[in-house]
Structure prediction request, 162 residues.
Amino acid sequence: MQQHAKKREALAGQLREAGGPVALAKDTSNLFRDRAGGERRRLDVRAFNEVLSIKENFVEAEGMVTYESLLAACLAHGVMPAVVPQLKTITLGGAVAGVGIESSSHRHGLVHDTMLELDVLLGDGRVVAYPRTTSTAISSSALPTPTARSAMRCACGRRPSR
Prediction:
């Protein structure tokens, strides 16, 4: 977790350094949209790709971890995320921000419904923890707009694998 905290503070510092439009620098994307646009500063989020811990009732991982890596780490412990998208290169943070849905969603909800807590990098460089309340899941609509946020740490519910 110390390494994660260092990465988190470094990225937040980069965002606070200068103004103007920002985009995420990453290797791949599963987005289907027009990417035309003006110049943007690129925040390199590629290092946020680790599973941090697998606990009794949840998995804690960074936002850029792919479901392929997340699932491999979880299965080694006999568990899996409650909702697993079919595309293995979808990232955990991308599934939260993009309202990920899968065949198990009828039982467990959308990906963001399984989140217990999110650390989110806001457009002004602050990192804010959004905990799940006892009565509701974290809603994507309760967070700032997708263009102004990046999930840096996700604690998601898990279930036994069969």
The two ends are 29 Å apart (CA to CA).
